[in-house]
Amino acid sequence: MKIVIIGAGPGGYETAVLAAKRGADVTLVESCAVGGTCLNEGCIPTKAFCRSAAMLEELGSASTLGITGLAYGFDFNAASARKDAIVAQLRDGVMTLLSHPRIRLVHGRASFADSTTVRVSSDSGSQSGNGEELISADCIIIATGSRPVFPDIPGKNLPGVVTSRELLGSESVPRRLCIIGAGVIGLEFASIFRSFGSEVTVIEYCREVLPRFDADIAKRLRQSLSKRGINFLTGTKVTEIVPSSMSGQTSDDTGGGLSVRFEKKGSGGTVGADKVLMAVGRRPALDTLNLDDAGIEYTPRGITVDAFMRTNVPGIYAVGDITGGVMLAHAAVMQGVRALDHAMGIEDNVNLAVMPAAVFTMPEVAAVGKTEEECREAGIEYICRKSFFRANGKALCLGETEGLCKLIVDRDGKLLGCHICGPHASDLIHEAAALVASGAGLDDLRSLVHVHPSLSEVLRAAASD
Fold it and tell me: What are phi and psi of 301, to 5 degrees?
């Protein structure tokens, strides 16, 4: 079987490796570095910074942990070098995986010539040489990911207005950072750069941060981040970004740089900033694929796929951000498994409906399954069970007592969702994900033995509430 995969992010390269292990001949096409946005300018470098930020916070609270006389300093260049080293190490690991004899990596930009053929405009020095190459296959999997959205705000192209990519590559910590958008990306950068010493203001158009998450959890996270000195302007519309010299303020007010003008409840205001991060979301990278020549159906929100990740054209699949669904690396990986299994005639039990998500702020947030809002909209009778980290022995020992665990169950006690704000939420959520996926209930969770003392006890405590 011959397979062409367009895009070497997690959904692309992991699918390529699995296909090669199963005996398929794979051509993997990538126009940038392997690993995609996640490895090179998203998940991994951000989490490297998260760890540096967490260490700063822990050192800052040393006296509350019984440690005195501790001297330390923060070297942003060293933290950046560590981030870059981690990315390079993992990228080398991906290249090792792709050295499989059945995988051919082509560096170039891919587009459809027809429904069975991909045209690759190769970069200089690629394995395929220069110029253009036509590659035909029995199966084509599109995994080209997404790009940051730049809203149509006057001044969006001014120097100092950046995406997450540019902010990750900064040579210094901005004294004042204004973040437009309080979704996952915006809040992670807010949390990181506040720890690094920036004055951070987050502007969000919606009434609450993390609009797609459980409202209780979102509110709790905002309150926790506010305690750390992050300023939030929710229910606020950004109207313009201008150089500070045009803002009508003195240099003492703004310190130079940029001014972000906004409207909130009919009144205007201005936030001064040295950097402005655009973090209002991402959109599928559709524009260069020439989908029309292959007859592939799509909308501005992404390529249309079914439960098996099939497009409307036989033999063509799409996975990950390009479909406009759940824009998470782990979702792309499992969608790739589903697509490959279907293409090879293999039945699987991959449950793409149960998709955990995490926000790597301090404290972390993680969720799986239904929220209260979703239950109300669907007319599902439910109850909530809660427990708090302040009552958890391990959390007290860690000095991280902010947050709660919230379970959503139906009237028969079946677990519909779990939402956590607190330390290591991204790790704790997987127990709940397994229970939700298996159709388990509160009795099943209560009957599981949990290590003591451990953070996982918050789950059993919520079930026993």
Answer: -85, -10
